[in-house]
């Protein structure tokens, strides 16, 4: 039996190299693994958990779909769809809400961080991980490739699955988070003690975004914060976080080992050489994506067709599980 893989990304703001390295690049690798059946979703309902401009959200959702294709996801090999096109997600989240203790949600680190920054905390923000659990569980997902910051949410999905199975009998597959060894937490270029974050992506120098032009990429990386030393090596020391982050980006994008990556800089004259090399690998990884994205965005009708086909395939998998759950919970099926 093939393993089922499900993952998602929000169409909010731009997509940065942290999202690419921690998640999307690994989805493309997963797609090329014959033992896996892959489902990738643009989670527009999740984006609504913080205020959005409606026109921008529509545009970004379309752009994200185009980005899926531009990075190499193939609608003939993977299911690619928009979350709100499949009503199972919202309906399933409601059903799971009714078995999820609110205390579980209030403990989520991301909720605590994000809610502290909002004047009005929307109920959707608290409920966000239950919607994410519905995304995962209604597809009988085995593995969820995500960055480190989503691990706690996948663990919550496991807890919800186990609780449902305990209350109503074996129903949901209990999913595993798949976290990469390298690059699961790419740090901000301007402050390597903080993770690179979409909500800060508009701040110059914070991140490199997949669709940035080469000049901006070079500028952001050349200005990346490092320490006052000159040693180019992987390190867990707080003061070497900047160098460690740049080396990690280099390692993942070149596909080299840690040792081979360090060796490439054995004769470097300083951090300038490291930054130049990182800028080069980031530009050569992102430039083809940027060019393909531009081209794909010119054919909206084709993008919309791909979304429709993806949503049709997603429904075939998730609707029977939704009916099963409704019946087990005591609802009369129409
Ligand atoms: P989102 O849109 O914030 O991020 C998308 C993916 O990028 C990863 N990521 C990072 N990886 C490494 N370094 C970073 N600095 C970094 N920042 C983000 C995230 O871990 C994620 O894998 N709730 C999710 C989307 C979601 C989902 C799902 C994921 C909704 N339903 C079901 C998996 C399965 C989110 O907001 O990701």
Write the layout of secondary structure elements.
Blueprint lengths: L2 E7 L7 H15 L4 E7 L1 H4 L6 H18 L7 E4 L5 H10 L4 H5 L2 H8 L6 H15 L5 E3 L5 H18 L7 E3 L35 H9 L18 H14 L3 H6 L7 H26 L3 H30 L5
Parallel strand pairs: 1-2, 2-3, 4-5
Helix pairs in contact: 3-12, 4-7, 4-13, 7-8, 9-12, 10-12
Condensed summary:
By secondary structure, the protein is mainly alpha-helical. The chain folds into two domains: 206 residues, HUPs (Rossmann fold); 98 residues, Tyrosyl-Transfer RNA Synthetase, CATH 1.10.240. The chain is built from 13 helices and five strands.
How would you name the CATH homologous superfamily of the largest domain? HUPs
**Overall number of domains:** 2
**What is the end-to-end distance?**
32 Å
Question: Which shape, going by the Cα principal axes?
Answer: globular
Low-confidence stretches: none
Which series of helices and strands comes N to C? EHEHHEHHHHEHEHHHHH
Strand content: 5-15%
Q: Compute the number of helices.
A: 13
């Amino acid at each position: 039996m093939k393993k089922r893989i499900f993952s998602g990304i929000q169409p909010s703001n731009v997509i940065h190299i942290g999202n690419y390295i921690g998640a999307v690049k690994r989805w493309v690798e997963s797609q090329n693994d014959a033992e896996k059946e892959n489902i990738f979703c643009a989670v527009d309902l999740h984006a609504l958990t913080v205020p959005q401009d409606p026109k921008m959200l529509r545009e970004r959702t379309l752009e994200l779909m185009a980005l899926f294709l531009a990075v190499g996801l193939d609608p003939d090999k993977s299911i690619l769809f928009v979350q709100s096109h499949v009503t199972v997600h919202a309906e399933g989240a409601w059903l799971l809400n009714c078995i999820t203790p609110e205390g579980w949600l209030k403990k989520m680190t991301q909720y605590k961080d994000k809610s502290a920054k909002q004047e009005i905390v929307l109920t959707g923000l608290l409920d966000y991980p239950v919607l994410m659990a519905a995304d995962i569980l209604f597809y009988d997902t085995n593995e969820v490739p995500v960055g480190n910051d989503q691990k706690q949410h996948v663990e919550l999905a496991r807890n919800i699955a186990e609780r449902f199975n305990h209350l109503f009998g074996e129903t949901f597959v209990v999913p595993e988070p798949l976290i990469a060894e390298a690059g699961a937490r790419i740090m901000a270029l301007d402050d390597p003690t903080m993770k690179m974050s979409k909500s800060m992506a508009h701040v110059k120098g914070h991140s490199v975004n997949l669709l940035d032009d080469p000049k901006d990429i070079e500028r952001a990386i050349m200005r990346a914060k490092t320490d006052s030393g000159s040693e180019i090596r992987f390190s867990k020391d707080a003061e070497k976080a900047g160098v460690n982050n740049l080396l990690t980006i280099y390692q993942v994008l070149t596909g080299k080992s840690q040792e081979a990556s360090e060796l490439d800089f054995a004769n470097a004259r300083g951090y300038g050489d490291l930054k130049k090399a990182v800028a080069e690998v980031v530009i050569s990884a992102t430039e083809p994506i940027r060019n393909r994205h531009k081209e794909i965005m010119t054919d909206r009708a084709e993008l919309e067709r791909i979304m429709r086909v993806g949503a049709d395939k997603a429904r075939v998998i998730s609707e029977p599980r939704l009916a099963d759950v409704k019946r087990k919970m005591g609802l009369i099926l129409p």
